[in-house]
Amino acid sequence: MKKIPAVCILLVILGLSSLAHAGEPARIETAGRIPLFTVAPAISEVSAALFFPDERIVWTLGDSGTGPHIGFTLATIGETTAIEVTGAENYDWEALVADGDGRLWICDVGDNSAARSQVTLYQVDPLDLTSDDTIPVTRSIRATYPEGAMDVEAAVYANNRIVLIEKTPLQNTDFDIARMVAIDIADNAPGEQTAEPVGTLPLTVPVTDAALSPEGVLYLLTYIGIYAVTGWEAPGRTVMPLKYFFYGQQEALVALGRNRFFVAIESGLFFLTWSWNVLPLL
């Protein structure tokens, strides 16, 4: 695809004024997107992404077809390099988060059949990136779920824990909830552990990714758009649609703040999208 000039991408990312206008009625939107760049063919079957705004770097990963590689993209020019992750196996990488020290956690948690007895989280440090495009695993954690196997494609980091969000609510006994569990990644956390239940989300659409905005709002990506979760760390949390859209098989979400997002589809194409909605309690 033809790339948008780098300066235009940065102006869009950094220069959009606040997109939430007080006093306007909330509404669910369907329009508004700008294609940015593609990470294919370096990363195939994109399943998650992170954006480091100060460095203008986008990190991506793909599921098993990509092998043990993550994508390193300079957003200023839109070019992607495949980085080999040494010491890791890609059974089904589906989520990618950064901890409080800027280290990446690759979440090998995909499980379409909900049959895996354990899942694995791999830690890598961007500072360990070598000149021959490799990066070593510095730590790994294997975890089991407290209520049996579940399919997961979404995760966020909060308070030294990685919170995993179940993809398909229909696999639950109660078809209208998705489970959330937390894995301890503190420096002294055990390498083998059972995840802790932290609640459920009332939704009936599959969740393909999740992201916390700079304001601390939890957003969920689905095949029909973006949902926002109010009070996500406390009982009584609610889920509400923010924006309906379908750009393709949308698998990766980055919350940029002020209702602006990167969304990537499985083929590797990234979009910038936004919402004018004013959400209560956010």
The first-level CATH class name: Mainly Beta
Mean pLDDT: 86
| Cα radius of gyration in angstroms | 18 Å
String of helices and strands: HEEEEEEEEEEEEEEEEEEEEE
Number of helices: 1
How would you sum up the major sheet?
A: 9 strands, mixed
Category from helices, strands and their pairing: mainly beta
Quote the beta fraction: over 45%
Q: Can you give a write-up of this model?
A:
The chain has one helix and 21 strands. 4% of the residues lie in helices and 48% in strands. The radius of gyration is 18 Å and the shape is globular. The strands form four sheets. Strands 2, 3, 4, 5, 6, 7, 8, 9 and 13 form a nine-stranded mixed sheet that branches. The chain has a four-stranded antiparallel sheet with strand order 1-21-20-19, covered by helices on one side. The N terminus is likely disordered. The chain starts with 5 loop residues before the first helix and ends in an 8-residue tail after the last strand. It has one domain: Neuraminidase (6 Propeller). The chain is mainly beta and 282 residues long.
Question: Secondary-structure map with pairings?
Answer:
Elements: H1 6-15, E1 33-38, E2 46-52, E3 57-62, E4 69-74, E5 79-86, E6 93-98, E7 104-108, E8 119-124, E9 134-144, E10 152-158, E11 161-166, E12 178-184, E13 192-194, E14 196-201, E15 207-212, E16 218-222, E17 225-230, E18 238-244, E19 250-257, E20 260-265, E21 269-274
